[in-house]
Amino acid sequence: MKKLDESLSFYDEAINLIDLNEYDGAIKSIKRNIDSLESQDEIALAYLNCAFLNDKLGDNLSAIDDFSKSIFFEAEIEIIHQRSKDISFNGRSNSRYKNGDYQGAIDDKRQANKIRLLEIDQSLGLNNNKIDYKNILLGTFVDIDLGPNYNTLVKSSKIRKSKYDLIADYKKVISDKRKEEVIRKLEILSESKYKIGDYKGSIKAIRRAEKYY
User: Fold this and answer.
1) 204-213 contacts: CB < 8 A, separation 24 or more?
2) SS3 of 141, please?
3) pLDDT in tens, 122-176
4) How far apart are CA 211 and CA 198, in angstroms?
5) Which end of the chain is less crowded, N or C, counting CB atoms within 10 A of the terminal residue's CB?
């Protein structure tokens, strides 16, 4: 375990740079050390961290490229115990959306959903401690020490929220049952729009649904 911790020590520098909003420097720190990583899991996670940081920088094409590399390496792994494979697909979906590729964005989002449902089915729903994209949206793991590699993921993927988010305000005054109803209606809307080829409408409905988590 000590050897693994030492091999990931470069993440400490990356975390310090992220805290200073020096995202470009954090990316360079991680990518300088990718060749030293031995497991497919750690290589995939390194690219995943870089992808989220590029997304923060607004470099959508680099983010898409890094998410794609993470997806490639994750495909070689049967099971990842600490995180869901849905994160990389959801992340790429967001970057593709920002880049105007609405069909790519909704296809990634749909694939992410299939992956997460399969993972839950395989584990009989007992993997509540696994980080997935919903955890990222909710900030579930922000105050938990997960090790430098996953602490970097938590920080790099943290979603910036607007002070004037009407949905966030609405969520505070409605019941959990009502939230579930709204989410389901938006998911149905997304599916209907997907079937008629309205990919922009489909991905926008799903992104709106996620705001009610």
Assistant:
1) 206/106, 206/109, 207/97, 208/167, 209/182, 209/183, 210/137, 211/165, 211/167, 211/168, 211/171, 212/167, 212/171, 212/179, 212/182, 212/183, 212/186, 213/134, 213/137, 213/138, 213/183
2) coil
3) 875 555 678 999 999 888 887 677 889 999 999 999 887 666 677 777 777 788 8
4) 21
5) N
